[in-house]
Amino acid sequence: MNWKEENNSLYKSFSFKDFAEAFAFMKRVAVLAEEAQHHPTWKNTYNKVEIWLQTHDEGNIVTEKDKALAQAIDALL
Amino acid sequence: MNWKEENNSLYKSFSFKDFAEAFAFMKRVAVLAEEAQHHPTWKNTYNKVEIWLQTHDEGNIVTEKDKALAQAIDALL
């Protein structure tokens, strides 16, 4: 699945084997977010992780920061 | 703030200094969830963490499992 641009956000849903695998992914994304000082809105239920990216400082729109973080997140998989 | 029971879930919102502190909290909750084999639905944006607890196996209602996890989460703070 690719990132979808909707409601001024980049959105993607990820599914894993179980919670442990999903949260391991979240820990790796957290490192990327801190490095970029650009953080997602994300939601997790057991093996599913949903991520929304937008740039708050630019008025909650999608910017290059979001596209770069989306690429970096995809590169984890 | 206490846990609120709404829409067949226990709900609570937590605020932290920044993303790093919020995610450190999430890592500790993840350990509790795995130990209990009982996992939240939760959502994070920067320093804010929202948690919903319900028992999927019992038909998505609030059970003692949820109340026990809520207590254990509160004990982290």
Automatic annotation (TrEMBL), chains A, B:
It catalyses: (4aS,6R)-4a-hydroxy-L-erythro-5,6,7,8-tetrahydrobiopterin = (6R)-L-erythro-6,7-dihydrobiopterin + H2O. Its EC number is 4.2.1.96. Gene3D superfamilies: Transcriptional coactivator/pterin dehydratase. The keyword Lyase applies. GO terms for biological process: tetrahydrobiopterin biosynthetic process. It is an enzyme of class 4 (lyase). The keyword Ribonucleoprotein does not apply. SUPFAM superfamilies: PCD-like. It comes from the Bacteria. Keywords: Lyase. GO terms for molecular function: 4-alpha-hydroxytetrahydrobiopterin dehydratase activity. Pfam families: Pterin_4a. PANTHER family: PTERIN-4-ALPHA-CARBINOLAMINE DEHYDRATASE (PTHR12599). Belongs to the pterin-4-alpha-carbinolamine dehydratase family. This is 4a-hydroxytetrahydrobiopterin dehydratase.
